[in-house]
Design brief:
It is built from one helix and nine strands; from the N terminus they run H-E-E-E-E-E-E-E-E-E. The chain is of the alpha+beta class and about 110 residues long. About 20% of the residues are buried.
Length: about 110
C-alpha cells in the first residue's frame, strides 16, 4: 500500500516528466533539420504544408522552400514520416532519417489531382 508521501512524490515525478516533455524542443537534446523545395510540374508550390510526424510542420514560401529545424535526431535505423499536402495536389508521404546536428535535404514533387 502506498503512503500519502509516496503518492505525492509519485504524482510530482509524473508531473515533472510531463512538463519536461512540453518544454521548447530547441533548448533540449540533439536536433537536426529537414529542408528543401516543394514543387510540381508547373513549378514551386507556395503554401504547401510539410510535416514531420508529431514533431513540427512548416508552410512553404512563395518559392516553394521550407525548413523544419526542431526535429530530434534519430538513432541508427529509425526513420521519420514526412507528409506534404497542398490544395489541388495528391498528398505525399515518405520516410527520412534525421541526423543530429545536420540538415537533411528533401525536395518534394507534388502531383496535381
Amino acid at each position: 500500500m502506498m503512503t500519502r508521501n509516496a503518492s505525492m512524490l509519485a504524482t510530482a515525478s509524473v508531473t515533472a516528466l510531463l512538463l519536461g516533455a512540453c518544454t521548447n524542443p530547441t533548448t533540449q537534446g540533439d536536433y537536426g533539420a529537414l529542408a528543401g523545395v516543394v514543387s510540381s510540374s508547373a513549378g514551386p508550390v507556395a503554401g504547401a504544408q510539410v510535416c514531420v510526424a508529431v514533431v513540427d510542420c512548416a508552410t512553404t514560401a512563395a518559392d516553394g522552400t521550407y525548413k523544419i529545424s526542431t526535429v530530434p535526431g534519430d538513432p541508427t535505423g529509425v526513420m521519420e514520416t514526412v507528409t506534404a499536402s497542398a490544395t489541388g495536389y495528391q498528398p505525399f508521404t515518405t520516410q527520412v532519417h534525421i541526423t543530429s546536428g545536420q540538415q537533411t535535404p528533401l525536395n518534394i514533387t507534388l502531383v496535381h489531382v
